[in-house]
Design goal:
The complex is a heterodimer of chains A (175) and B (581). With 175 residues, chain A is of the alpha+beta class. Chain A is built from 5 helices and 9 strands, in the order βαββαββαββαββα. In chain A, the strands form 2 sheets. In chain A, strands 5, 6, 7, 8 and 9 form a 5-stranded antiparallel β-sheet that branches. In chain A, strands 2-3-1-4 form a 4-stranded antiparallel β-sheet, covered by helices on one side. In chain A, a hairpin with a 5-residue loop joins strand 2 and strand 3. By secondary structure, chain B is an alpha/beta fold. Chain B folds into 3 domains: 2-186, Rossmann fold; 198-362, TPP-binding domain (Rossmann fold, 3-Layer(aba) Sandwich), CATH 3.40.50.1220; 379-558, 3-Layer(aba) Sandwich (Rossmann fold). Chain B is built from 23 helices and 20 strands. In chain B, strand 2, helix 2 (30-33) and strand 3 (42-45) form a beta-alpha-beta unit. The radius of gyration of chain B is 25 Å and the shape is globular. Classes of the chains: A alpha+beta (175), B alpha/beta (581). The A-B interface holds A 12-13, 16-17, 20-21, 24-25, 28, 61-62, 65-66, 68-75 and B 117-118, 121-122, 125-126, 129, 146, 187-190, 311-313, 316-317.
Chain lengths: 175, 581
Amino acid sequence: MAVTHHTLSVLVENKAGVLTRIAGLFARRGFNIYSLAVAPTDDERFSRITIVVDAESKPLEQITKQLFKLINVVKITELHPDEAVERELMLVTVRAEPTVRGQIIELVGVFEGKIVGVGQEQVTVMLAGAPNKLDDFEELMRRYGIEELQRTGRVALPKLDRATTRLHSVSGMVS
Amino acid sequence: MQMSGGQALIKSLEMEGVEVMFGLPGGAILPVYDPIIDSPIRHILVRHEQGAGHMAEGYAHATGRPGVAMVTSGPAATNIVTPLCDAYMDSVPLVVITGQVPFSAIGSDAFQECDTTGITLSVTKHNWLVTDPADIPRIVREAFHIATTGRPGPVLIDIPKDIVDPKNPRSAMEWYWPTLEDIQKDLPGYKPTTKGHPRMIKEAARFILESERPVIYAGGGILKARAAEALRELVDLTGVHVVTTLMARGAFPDDHPLCLGMPGMHGNYTAVTAMQKADLLIALGSRFDDRVTGKVAGFAPEAKIIHVDIDPAELGKVRRPDVPIVGDCKLVIEELVKAVRELGDQPDRSAWKSRISGWQEKYPLTYQQDFEEGGPLKPQFVLEKLRDSTPDDTIVVSGVGQHQMWTSQYWKFNHPYTWVNSGGLGTMGFAVPAAVGAKVGRPDRMVWAVDGDGCFQMTAQELVTASAERIPIKVAILNNAYLGMVRQWQEMFYDERYSEVYLSPDLPDYKLWAEAMGCVGMRVESPDEVQSAIDKANEIDDRPVVIDFRTDSSEKVYPMVPAGLSNDDIVVDPSQGEGGH
């Protein structure tokens, strides 16, 4: 991912219209939202919005400050890719005639994806992982013929501090 | 106590200490208008909803208390969008209540339905669509809290008819009044910073003491924070010169020897030039607006910046400050005064002072009034006469354009809250309704609206309101028969090609129009009639007065920094030769 993209993790009150306020603010200040994922947190009063923003033209600082002025915004964290765990989910339907179906299944296995639908001539694959892993898989599927593809946009949380991360790595919980 | 949502709404306004509101009823808001009959709150019935919004703004400007306006749904709500945007740009505390179609009808394109919260999203500090009458007291209290704290601004409460209508069982609620703690708990994302960072304040004090050419760049935030006295103390302690922006006129007295007046596109030469040549700008509640900075790259190139603002988003938005301080202007200035006092004596700045007085002598504001028979009446002459014939604490309200700039330039504002105008949005038609609101808030003061003929035609109907409600404002129309500022730009930058700017001096007949609206109408065509007309107007206290001053169409506002150029390229009055630096 190019450095011109930034990930913002925004904790908001879980109220009607909050997403409109946020999306409207980006539009009004001339920023393009690259991807967006929203869902309630463990505390149902709040939702977390993960926004990947295309910040080529303007500094991110101004939009962050403007966002924070919204009454319903509780907390904003800017997540640098090196300091965050980022994941995304993709569903993709690929042309899979019998002659190539084996190759596709093999690739799905390599990428630790899952086949969630099978038709006469196509398969639908589900793949979750780091965004660049999804990019790679998407590229590989292209030669077979992608019929439909949908990605969720990324969700992200800050990486835990180094000591804890190592511990988790040892136990195999974090790739 | 059981009551309907409509009763709860009016009672909540009473609990907030609202004494007056401006509005116009209609279908969806009818149930809220009924309990007004039994309420001590004074309601002023406007002739157009835009008028209600600007009146509430004028009231807020003049009193410092939040202005309240109430209108119905649909077209009434869209009519009040302009005042909301105006208040948003100029940080005016406003609480606007709009009616909405019944909750069950929302989204069905019902009669007089519009998406009010959607439309006003970007012109309010916050807004609410109320869905449960039990929420009304809490939301009203939150609305006033948000409008008046932090960076003040307008808020809007949109109320569906069914939850306020006593005939509908859905409107029943049990009365309560939340505490401040209750509403703060309900607003986890709203915690304005008011106290400046002590280390930054010390740093600012050090910068001031090290500076040889400092200028205080005072903005509207001084008035919003009620920091005029604190500013006075800082200036008396440091001896630093002050410029007061269009939104801050009166925040520091014009008759103080260190006051340089207004900077910016039509600021006076010394205020503009002192900022350009400064080595330190102390920005207090100002926001580096494009009308002040001119071309940003060429603005105050040698100056370090101390920027104090309650809104963190203003710091670094236009110009990166060397010392950023988020906080309330009054609290920060008071701390700054202490910090400066602790650090000791100010350096000798006599060389800088004499440069400043040199500019003041060389380039004062100037115009030429011809007293020969038939010589055209100059607008600046009218303003000087008006200024000298009115009490020192007169509240002056203006519209937007040439007349606004001349008023800001030629008036002497020696008290805070005596100047009311539309700065950020530049709303033509602001003057008449805002003057009505100011007079309602300060009935003890003389209130003069200085308006242009173009502006006057946009909102003059509110003089009917003023006559009916016996609100004796005075209006001076500087009638140059043109959209004067547009004409000036066409003359200077469009080869004198006057496209669609002529309005005619006598269509409408302003004197007759004023009389038709229940005002005293007068007309002044020559310099020798000015004084007697003003004197006569000042004696009338039982109804509004309108004077149609027929002024010179070709008069232009100088100095001027042409749009897009640096402040170094300032153009002075042609009689003063070349400006520039």
